[in-house]
Amino acid sequence: MHKLTFEIESNEEIWELFDKDLDSIFIHGFVPHEVIEWWKTDLKTQDGTEIKNLSVRQMEMDVQTDLNGLKKILELNTNQLRIYQFEKSISDTLEIDRLPKKKQNLILKQNGLKHFFFLDFEFITIGSFDSEFLTRIEQNPKFGERIAERKQNLAK
């Protein structure tokens, strides 16, 4: 697994980093409302039960979506995201938190993981099993200078 970490200026520019040929997106531990306060929402369960006008807080969920859904999620300007880009949808039984840390990357790769994008406020860490994917990001005029600057600062 190869990784890059660098500064970003907005969630909008993150969109440019994704592999547009991979339409299977998994967001782990997504928090749709980051402020700890009560907010109103509706809930629809898998069996079709619908509960309207609930008050909820600190809701966290795993989300599977496509690139269009990812774009909408990025527009929410969430400060912390754990985005995984797979070549296929992940199975119902795959739970990242339950994977042994030492074998996590191997198990995820076996399940079709290609890239991950960890957004932490103004920093993004991108991991990929494809070193050429990261090289293309390093050569991107918008991101290349930031990546080189960060590597230089870490070397000091």
Report on this model:
This protein has helices at about 10-15, 65-75, 105-110, 130-140, 140-155; strands at about 1-5, 25-30, 40-45, 50-55, 60-65, 80-85, 115-120, 125-130. The chain is an alpha+beta fold. The strands form 2 sheets. The protein has a 6-stranded antiparallel beta sheet. The chain has a two-stranded antiparallel ribbon with strand order 3-4. Strand 7 and strand 8 form a beta hairpin. The longest helix is centred in the C-terminal third of the chain and has 15 residues, at about 140-155.
Keywords:
156 residues; alpha+beta; six-stranded antiparallel sheet; two-stranded antiparallel ribbon
Produce the secondary structure layout.
Elements: E1 2-7, H1 11-14, E2 24-30, E3 39-44, E4 50-56, E5 61-65, H2 67-74, E6 80-86, H3 104-110, E7 113-120, E8 123-128, H4 131-139, H5 141-155
Antiparallel strand pairs: 1-8, 2-5, 2-6, 3-4, 6-7, 7-8
